[in-house]
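Same chain as my last thread, 320 residues:
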Amino acid sequence: MQWGQIKALFIICFLVLNVFLIKQLVDRQEEELSFIPEASKEEELELNINGLESLSTESFTAPLLYVENFNYNEVEPALSATLVNQEAIVVNDFHLYSRFTAPIPIDPTDTENLQTLVNEHVFRGQTYQFFDYLEGPGLLVFFQQYEYPIFYNPNAVLFIQLNDQMEMTQYTQTRLDQIEEDEEEPQEQTLIQQYDAVYRLYHNSSALETNDTITDVQLGFHNLASLPNGEQLLNPTWQIEVNENEDYYVNAVEGHDYPRQTDFIADTLEQLIDQLNMSSTRAFSYYNIDEDREEDSEIISVIRQPFVALYQKLAEVESE
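reply #2:
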């Protein structure tokens, strides 16, 4: 055999050996990597979302609530006695509009004193909880509460209009009444924990983003179903505040999240204004109306026009 052939054979053998050794090295590295455990979903949540340590580990229960629209005209004596220095209209039994004969100064940033004034001057004001202050249009938004607030329900809201001098000038409200069933207490439901609600927001609906911070969690109710007879079924719901400026809502029994209600205030205000546009005078009941007014339509216009202007301001702010 010639030396050239022997040399070529050695080179080929060394190449084969190198390939074999490289393959062995790669296989060993892959084998070692396969023993590195993947991060669990809980670990992924805790690595990417802040504020989890502030979540309550307590187990909560709350009932399902069966409710119906509150009829203001059925409590006429109490209504008239409450509406001191106010002119009011009830439309279709379920919608109250009231105008203060003398505006009431308030500080919308002092929520404690604000709640005191609402308790004093608004019909059953103590059953509403402050939700938001829209500075541009001058609107205070409250949600009715049954121990906990009822979130984003057009039949359970209080809107208070402010003038440029930071005074309450008029308000409109709707409210729900709990339906008592055979005088028995509603059955308590076991709720998912706050951590589980955040977990589902992050993994199931992808609503949360990396480095988001959970800044508050509150229990309330959300409309689960509207029944054919006009009644509603309210479900316990976790309100999860993120980065101090966004709120998400998770069904506290079943765990699914509710759609964002970005247009709720404008849509509800528009509906409440539409109630004042009704042509049938039989739909209107009047309380404490100034005797000097020549006709009922005058007070309807006096109350309606500021709400229309408020709605237009709200639309302008949202379009900016």
